[in-house]
Each structure stands twice: as C-alpha cells, then as structure tokens.
Write a structure and sequence with these properties.
two-stranded antiparallel ribbon, binds S-adenosylmethionine, single chain, 9 strands
C-alpha cells in the first residue's frame, strides 16, 4: 500500500522564533572562541578592576592591536560580558564578570569551561568520521585545549568542594586521611585532585594514575611545583592495572564514564582496596532518565559526552560507553557488577554527584 504523506503545516511565527534563537546560539558559539582569545591575550585580566577603558588603552596594556581589541570589545558588550558607555566610548568589565573570568581561585572561574568547549569543537571533524563507523577517539588523541581546558575547568570545583565537602561526606574517610592513609587517584589527568588532597593531608600518601602518558608527565610537574612530590607518585597505567594494594581510599574524578571497561576497573578497585576501604566516584550530575537531563547543565554534558566521553570509551576495549549522563542507577550497577555491595550518594553540587562505594 502506498503511503500518502500529509503536508505539514508550518507555523511562521514559531519558525522565526527558532531562527532568532539560532542567532543567539551562533553568537554564543563564536563567543566561546572570543572568551578563549580574551583569556589567552590577557584582555579580561587587564580590564579587571581597571574601570572604564578605551580600546586603545586596553590594547596598549596588553600589547595587542587596537583594531582587533575594539571589535572584540563590541562583541563582548553585545553579549553582556562587558558594559559600554557611549558617551565616553569606554568599556568596563563588571566585578562579577571579573571574578568569573579572571580569578582562578573562585568556584565560578569559567575560562577552562570555554577552553575545553573550544578544544572539543576544534577536534570535532574527527568525531564526524568516527560517528560514521562507530570508531572511538581516545582522550590522548585530543589537542591541548581539551587537556588543559579540562584541568582548568574541573579544578575550581575541586578547590571549592573536595576537602571541605566531598571527603568529609564519606564515612570515616577524612579521619583516616588525617591519621595517614594510602590513596589511589585513578584517571587523575593532570593531577589537580591528587595534589589538592596531598596538600590537605600531609600524613597520607597518594598514587595518581592515568593511561595517558602526557597527562601523567604534566601531573608530575604540577606536583613538583606544589611541593608535594615526596608524597605523591604518578604512574602511567589504565584503571584496570594501577599498581599497589591495601588502599584506604580509591578516587575517580570525572573519569569512570570515560573508560572502555568501567566494570573491569571496578573489579580492580575491589581487588586493591582494603576490606574497610572506600571508593569515591565523582561523576557529572545526571538523572537516570533522559527527560531529567533536558536542561542547560544536561545539554552541556550531553554535548561534551558526544564529542569527548563517548568516543573516549569507544576507543578502548569493551567500549561500554556509559556517557557523561549515565545517572546514579547505571553507575551503581557498574559497581555492583564489579563486586561492591554498598553504594550511596554522599554529596552533590549543581554540577557533580559524589558516590561512596564500599565492598
Ligand atoms: C575528563 S578527564 C578527568 C581527569 C581528572 N580526573 C580530572 O578530574 O581533572 C578523564 C580522564 O580519564 C582518563 N582515562 C580514560 N580512560 C582511562 C582508563 N581506562 N584508565 C585510566 N585513565 C583513563 C583520561 O586519560 C583522562 O585523564
């Protein structure tokens, strides 16, 4: 039987609304590049606390070309990142934007968020190819904006929550760390979390591991610079094979869902943890059902997941591809299959869920 397609009625107003929404989206996409540019050229830092500046003044302070700076400032003003005073022709970075764009110690610090977004977009032609074949793209195959952006994106959240919120939320763990515990930080990347814990708990010893050699080399440099290299050892190992045993605490920050074989990793954690030890898993905030994640945070995470996390997992053996919005039930299932019997949500922020997993 032949199907006769009914003509679909187009609502012209809705169509125009969508087109204008797209103008906003394209402006935001381009602005990601402009934020990274402003960060790398020091434009925001030069504006912070400086009061109203003319383009030529900002260009002079940053050693940049006035014509580019003027155009960049107008784009920033149109997007509400800076304000513009038509009478004086000067631009001001409001104090709240100054904190978010220039203060790396603030939990609201944003440049890393934009940098990893731009890095993901720059690497996206390879994802177009991978999506045709189902192949993966490993974390190690990404450019520096993904790797450095990731470190800069996550570190403010760890600074704000890890020592004061997440670790104390785990049963008895902070006390063990105070006394002196053995900790494995798996999938540690550039080692922000490892170093932060080592600084807070000088009696404890830390082993950071990641399968990506370049990340581990950076982590070692960071530990030297932070003066904790005597208590922190970094090794290039996948989560299924990091060395050592009898750990009091194993941590995984935003990496379990990136792994090809998270169940295999769970089994290795089970085998290397003390019987009374704790596995802390930090994952992106997500509900169990798709419809719970259809919000701005879920949108950003599903997008990162399409360009980074899912291809990372598919590039490894098993290729389970949990995705960055796996949700608590799926993560619990992975830990139970890996041999753990206790699982609870110990803490949460608008961006992360923190799980306590025990044998
Ligand atoms: C999103 S990054 C998070 C890095 C770090 N934990 C942080 O919070 O900054 C994910 C990390 O997982 C690592 N990774 C992915 N698969 C892995 C595996 N099978 N074993 C160990 N590390 C892995 C990547 O190399 C990358 O450093």
């Amino acid at each position: 039987m032949t199907t006769i397609e009914q003509p679909v009625e187009i609502d012209a107003d809705k169509l125009m609304q969508f087109v204008f929404r797209a103008v906003d989206e394209v402006g935001a996409t381009l602005n990601s590049a402009l934020v990274v540019l402003g960060d790398k050229l020091g434009l925001y830092r030069a504006m912070a606390g400086a009061g109203p500046l003319a383009p030529a003044e900002l260009a002079e302070r940053t050693g940049t070309a006035e014509r580019y700076v003027r155009e960049w400032l107008n784009a920033q003003a149109a997007g509400g990142f800076v304000t513009y005073d038509p009478d004086s022709g000067r631009y001001t970075l409001p104090p709240e934007q100054a904190v978010a764009l220039t203060d790396p110690d603030s939990p609201a610090y944003l440049p890393g968020f934009f940098q990893i977004a731009i890095g993901s977009v720059l690497d996206s032609p390879r994802i177009i190819e991978a999506a045709r074949t189902g192949a993966g793209l490993g974390w190690h195959e990404h450019g520096p904006d993904v790797l450095d952006g990731c470190e800069r994106f996550f570190r403010p959240g760890y600074n704000a929550n890890l020592i004061t919120g997440w670790l104390p939320a785990l049963d008895g763990v902070a006390a063990k760390l105070e006394r002196g515990a053995l900790v494995a930080d798996v999938g540690c990347g550039h080692g922000s979390s490892t170093i932060l814990m080592a600084q807070a708990y000088p009696n404890s010893t830390f082993v950071g591991s990641d399968y990506h050699r370049g990340s581990i080399e950076t982590a070692r440099q960071r530990a030297e610079a932070a003066g904790v290299a005597d208590r922190v050892r970094f090794e290039v190992e996948p989560a299924s094979a990091y060395t050592g045993r009898d750990y009091d605490l194993v941590t995984m920050f935003d990496c379990l869902h990136d792994m090809g074989d998270p169940v295999g990793a769970a089994r290795h954690v089970r085998g290397t943890l003390k019987p009374d030890g704790t596995w802390m898993i930090v994952e992106p905030r997500a509900g169990d059902r798709v419809e719970e994640n259809l919000n701005p945070v879920g949108r950003a995470y599903y997008s990162f997941s399409t360009l980074l996390c899912t291809p990372a997992s598919l590039s490894q053996s098993v290729g389970l591809a949990l995705g960055a919005q796996a949700g608590q039930a799926r993560i619990e299932d992975v830990t139970a299959t890996g041999g753990f019997s206790r699982f609870r949500r110990a803490a949460e922020t608008p961006f992360n869920l923190v799980y306590e997993v025990r044998p």
